[in-house]
Specification:
globular, alpha/beta, Dihydrofolate Reductase, subunit A, two-stranded antiparallel ribbon
Length: 190
Amino acid sequence: MRKLSYFVGMSLDGYIAASDDSIDFFPLGAEFLAWLGAEYPETLPTAARPHFGISDDAPNRHYDTIVMGRGTYRPGLAAGLPNPYAHLKTYVVSSTLGQTGDPAVELVESDPLGLVQRLKKEEGLDIWLGGGKLGAQLIDEIDELVIKSYPVIAGDGVRAFTGNFKPTNFKLERRKDFEDGTQVSWFSRA
């Protein structure tokens, strides 16, 4: 069965984006970016892949599907990228967006839990989850956390989990440190 993996970058104080959903305040060191391009190439937007030397036909290593909330989707849409991850099957969960701007991006206006439960039963690589509100809604379905912790304090913005107080235990599986202070930690559901 496929896993739902919340693969997310966050500040030391638990924010995954600024209040305007931007993430440009995260310090991205060269060593970390090289590792990300090699280990998780599918998590880079399609338009950015050539910059990292990733070919259009490069295989996805971990995920073949992304389920994201409106806030995670909106920055790509604003940048003129209605399908920022064209190399993944993309679902956007929103009851207010109305349309996605690309027929390959499926809008899910209700029941994200049902969507994820159905996707987990399908064949394929794991499912990448994106979004603080959506993460909180789907906390019972999250099998794995992959947290990219950047050495910065945000102070305010979008929290990693917003809107659902539900203490849930996870177990640290491994951690990778980078020279600039960035850490990537893998957790499995305890």
